[in-house]
User: Fold Peptidoglycan-binding protein LysM from Flavobacterium glycines.
Amino acid sequence: MIKKWHFYTSLTVIILFLSYSFKPLRLEENEWFLRGNVEGAKYQFPSLAQETYSGLTIPFTGNLFIGFKEAIGFRESENKYKKVNSLGYLGKYQFGNETLRSIGIHDTEKFLRSPKLQEKAFVALLSKNKSILKDIIEKYDGKVVGGILITESGILAAAHLGGAGSVKRYFKNNGRKYIKDAYGTSVRSYLKAFGGYDTSFIEPNVNAVVTL
Assistant:
């Protein structure tokens, strides 16, 4: 009887030992890493989805190119692809008709209906302006002019606002001349607001056009 009692006791101990040996380790200390939806514990940006930025008062403005284009789009139109302003400028990035024609776009209705076309147009214009302003970028990138640290992205943003000619006039006057668009927005403000983004992958091409 005693031998049977020892046998069953030993068997129970072995079973309990094996059970605990294969039990997963507790993860309380690192539980945050496994949670699916913890407020403030997940990254939302950068994102390629346009709807990710809807409803924000300030768009994502990291130094990646997507931050650059979303910041300019927000400044120009609050990222509204179908917006037409009082002067007839079109879309998310507020293109004028003449500028659109210079990059091969003649159908403005199609342009307004197509976010993809607008994004291509934005890159094409950057490429064209980067070629036109190549000497300015090489001369002033990294220097302080008129109290502003000049960067390539700031120069390209200013060219988007007022055209490459306005940017050239700004630097010709060493930043002392107040150059602005029809709404009173200055080249200087764009140089400052949109400096420091990574636009290095944009290839300069004075003949850049949008391929449909």
In short: Residues 23-46 have pLDDT under 50 and may be disordered. The radius of gyration is 29 Å.
